[in-house]
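> example.struct
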């Protein structure tokens, strides 16, 4: 017994792993190999090929130790992160991202099952930027109660267009339905899944926004040294299109002289009434009328296009502020901050 104990103690980690995999058999060993990188496979394989004969008492002792260590760790923790790390060992990055976005999204076997579990306000906010015919098809595939809730949250004129399209709707071709499902999966569900991860960067941006400028600089500088990507994300989130409400009238008018009018029309189409009023009150009556006509003429627009235009205007505002042409006041006090 003492000799067995000594022999067992002399085994290194790779040797224990190699013995365990041999004992588990080809089927299980193959699965384990598929989860290893090339260096790990090479090390285990080399060790395995030079093991020679291993007594049953050594194998038994190894399994006992393995079981003891597994039980001593307490309960296993399954999470999105651990699942993603495991999948990344055997699948390409694109496939892992696709699978994780799918399972992070709302529950349901099919796309339509999943949409039935999406909050009606979230779904309505997305669908209002699609064509009425497309929205009609989507709502026709949902449960009546959920469709009714979504329909009630759409703009009145737009919702009537959707209703009329649904009344005239004939059997939808499979190809059309497949294309709609694909768009929903790639544009809506993937963004929804990313959002459901819990955006810690947004939380930190809100906290940083409440700090004075000196503290902001100090924390951001320290964060850049540790994680530049996170620092950049937080800085980007610390100023949004809605923050342009912090401009005074002179600042808005300066911005209006620089911004592309079609981009502004698109940005305002997806903004709040407060933001629209801010810009319209700084335009002449004629310019405001033309801008409203441009917005109406656009019809339904994609949310991604609205956000892109808003980001361009925010970037322009930052550049003007950096040049000293406009002043952006802080949100929490009377002092002003020049970017």
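> example.seq
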């Amino acid at each position: 017994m003492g000799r067995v104990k000594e022999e067992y103690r002399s085994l290194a980690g790779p040797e224990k792993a190699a013995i365990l995999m041999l004992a588990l058999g080809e089927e299980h060993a193959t699965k384990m190999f598929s989860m290893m990188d090339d260096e790990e496979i090479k090390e285990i394989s080399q060790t395995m090929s030079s093991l020679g004969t291993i007594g049953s008492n050594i194998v038994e002792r190894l399994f006992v130790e393995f079981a003891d260590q597994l039980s001593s760790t307490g309960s296993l923790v399954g999470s999105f992160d651990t699942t993603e790390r495991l999948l990344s060992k055997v699948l390409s990055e694109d496939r892992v991202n696709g699978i994780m976005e799918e399972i992070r999204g709302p529950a349901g076997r099919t796309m339509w099952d999943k949409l039935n579990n999406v909050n009606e306000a979230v779904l309505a906010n997305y669908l209002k930027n699609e064509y009425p015919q497309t929205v009609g098809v989507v709502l026709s595939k949902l449960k009546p109660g959920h469709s009714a809730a979504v329909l009630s949250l759409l703009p009145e004129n737009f919702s009537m267009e959707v209703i009329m399209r649904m009344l005239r709707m004939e059997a939808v071709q499979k190809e059309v339905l497949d294309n709609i499902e694909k768009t929903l999966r790639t544009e809506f569900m993937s963004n929804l899944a990313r959002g459901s991860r819990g955006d810690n960067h947004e939380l930190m941006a809100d906290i940083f926004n409440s700090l004075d400028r000196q503290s902001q600089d100090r924390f951001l500088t320290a964060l850049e040294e540790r994680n530049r990507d996170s620092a950049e994300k937080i800085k980007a989130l610390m100023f949004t299109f809605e923050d342009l409400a912090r401009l005074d009238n002179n600042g808005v008018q300066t911005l209006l002289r620089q911004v592309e009018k079609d981009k502004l029309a698109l940005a305002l189409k997806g903004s709040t009434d407060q933001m629209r009023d801010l810009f319209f009150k700084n335009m002449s009556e004629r310019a405001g009328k033309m801008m409203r006509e441009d917005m109406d003429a656009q019809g339904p627009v994609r949310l991604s296009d609205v956000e892109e235009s808003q980001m361009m205007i925010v970037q322009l505002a930052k550049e003007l502020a950096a040049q000293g042409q406009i002043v952006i006041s802080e949100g929490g006090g009377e002092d002003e901050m020049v970017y």
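> remarks
The CA atoms of residues 74 and 151 lie 49 Å apart.
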